[in-house]
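Hello,

Following up on my earlier ticket. Below are the two sequence lines again, exactly as submitted.
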Amino acid sequence: MRRAMVRVQTTVNGQPAEFLCEPRQSLLECLRDILGLTGTKEGCNDGNCGACAVIMDGRLVNSCLVLGVEAEGRTILTIEGLARGSELHPIQRAFLEQGAVQCGFCTPGLILATKALLDRIADPSEAEIRRWLANHLCRCTGYDKVVRAVRQAAAELKEACR
Amino acid sequence: MSDRPYEVIGTRPVRHDGADKVTGRAKFGADVRLPGMVYGYVLRSPHAHARIRRLDTTRAEQFPGVLAVVTAADLPESPDRPVDLVEGTLPLRYVRANVLARDKVLYKGHAVAAVAAVNRHVAEEAASLIEVDYEPLPAVLDVLGAMREDAPRVHEDLRMREFGETTERAGNIAEHFRFVLGEVEPSPTGEGLVPKGFADADVIVEREFRTAMVHQGYLEPQNATALWNQDGRVYVWTSTQGAFSAREAIAWVLDLPVSRVCVYPMEVGGAFGGKIRIYLEPVAALLSRKCGRPVQIVMPRRDVFEATGPTPGTVIRVKMGARKDGRISAAQVWMAYETGAFPSGQCAFGAMCILAPYDIPNLVIDGYDVVVNKPSTAPYRAPGATQAAFAAESVVDELAEKLGMDPIEFRLKNAAREGTRRADGPKHARIGCVEVLEAMRNHPHYRAPLEGQNRGRGVALGYWFNIGWYSACTISVNPDGTVNLVEGSVDLSGTRTSIAMQAAEVLGLRPDQVHPVVADTDSIGPTAVTGGSRTTYATGWAAYEAAHDVIRQMKQRAAMIWDVEPAAISFERGVFRTGERTMTFAELAARLEETGGPVIGRGAVNPASAGGSFAGAIADVEVDPGTGKVRLLRFTSLQDAGRAVHPTAVEGQMQGGSAQGIGWALFEEYAWTAEGAMANSSLLDYREPTALDVPPIETVIVEVPDPEHPFGVRGVGEANIVPPPAAIANAVYRAVGVRLRQLPLKASALVDALRAREN
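Thanks for your patience. The regenerated structure is below:
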């Protein structure tokens, strides 16, 4: 039995992208298995861990809860699209300098969550940071160094805006 | 700082794999993509305990898009023998039976069959067409019930081991062991031993504790990609703590010589003890053998909960007596751990740790490993010790209170020191028990006033013995004066860097001039698992030896160039010297080809033991007496690191272990239906702590160097998870005056306890 495939035209990390997928496939699957963007991680596949977070049209979403066909006409940013050329984004650098990365599996989701947060609130308080990150499980760090990394990134990005 | 003895050790460089981890480029097991790869799905038992009467895979095999189906019938049937599985020895038949069930399923989630298909949806659909006729059997779910003579039997062929000997006793008790110190006498019933010393005690506290089964909770699900190559070799890409232990286990299950298996250890998205065991690897290999293509299987999260990990729930009874002068005179412990469907040795680890922080003259510990119809348990960070410390540290806290002593002073009065004998026999080497307690007593957190209603502060101490074991490293010198370091240790959270730093220290290089590579099992000498807090300790030691081997060989090259004896050459801070003549490491590195070819240093070590690590926790809580909610106001973790190679990484270990301990204390547990199904097998219902559940975790690194290790390193990965549940329980008592003796400290239980006290 042949399954109907749907053609999806979208923009991923600033480049036009086109793929065929089954209607039941999630955006997470399409990114990882069709487009080869394996930086987005599958931790639970039911929207409870945040490891698969990407930014779609400026909003943070769990890509496991979005269907691939819903990407039609949208703009998607994944972890692979954050660095500028060979330069790390200040958020990526802050995660490294603060030791906020241990196993690194939740890291892509946390970094994109930080981007979405700082795009919205330039100078978040610790409480705002913790509330925002509460959709993302990290089993290694206990969150302290992650919060510090978000603060460092916020400070640097604010400085860069001046 | 001028008084720092080292140039590199103790600094905080960005880790070597950092850029890959923040750009999405790091390759985890599920990121492997091979030409022609297909996807597998594992069918699992819906019953906690059932006999498989009939298994028919015909319809699945005929489903379009399916390439192969396997069952236990595809596993080889070589003779049974005991195999060493890192955390204990198990009959090979049990190892195979956990990979794919043969006659009986022993827990809900037990693997029964597997399908390979063009994608995982097709594989899952096809798996649902496999017909299995089960005869449900009564399930054994409770550890105390399982120990009864008349309990249903998980394994008909299990015979209890007692005091190291196999007995004729059938049942669910896999092992009974006993540790004894000092003077003991037969118990009044004549069935066991009791320690002397309770008669001298002015206060005696005797309590029973229970802890729930919990999961390691790593974010990356288990996965395996296997290729059964046409030359007969099996290649496996997997998320494992030990490439070599995985290679052995895969080879045993498939009845192959180890050299026919090559394991590529991928980046590991969290493990904490739960990724030592193999699960999917032999299944993917069998599917690959059948269809001739590489097969990848990634576990759904539900299966991670139902079929991997967890760590045992326990029942622990502790009786301790102390004199008015504050000395503990005797202790008696009875502990039973549920091992899940197959035996495991975690109760013994708990027993090694439970009284280890203290110098107790007379003690008896009886321990039982008990099989039940739940997933086969696996180690979890300081396996067995956290449950044990919850019990012992609660009793110690109560004794201190009854004696009117400060809980830290009471612990200091009884603290183990170098030479104190442990319950399991060996004497403590140089340890930092006293130093950690003093750091707790002197910390501003312990001295800060804690005001407000329903608030309290608790402390607890934890111990993990750490292990040594074998490790291999090679270091090859590049012509530009840098080196490549090849190691067999899987890097779970930054050990590429902590190992490279030890080589850099010897070689007079910066950490970024050492390029670490975690190798596959074809490319480096055997190296034991990343576990037991051994990696920075033992593989770091191997890197130290390899670096010294490099220096020894390079001195020979310098001697050749200068025409002097190698003994006349010194090496310090990156410079070779004889008399007035000098050459930097880089200058000499550029001249290796002309002086005899490449220089490759090697290091291989197998330390028999390692210095144990102590950790302390100070917790401030606020209890809402109406809802029973416990809020953490402040939390401090203190740990003896021996020598902190990379302090940021050490702090990260302490904070991560503390957060897991906080989850264990407050929310995490397997909830069961009456039929023995896990009722909360998602990350929504199994509550791991979020950023909102934990306060900023303060850390204090105590450094009592291990005199055995060249840099004084102690493993730091595990002891930090041990004290938090007890510290939080003790804090809750100080806040509202009730002691909960069951983990997690559930809000509902706290409300019930508060109401019971009012009535």
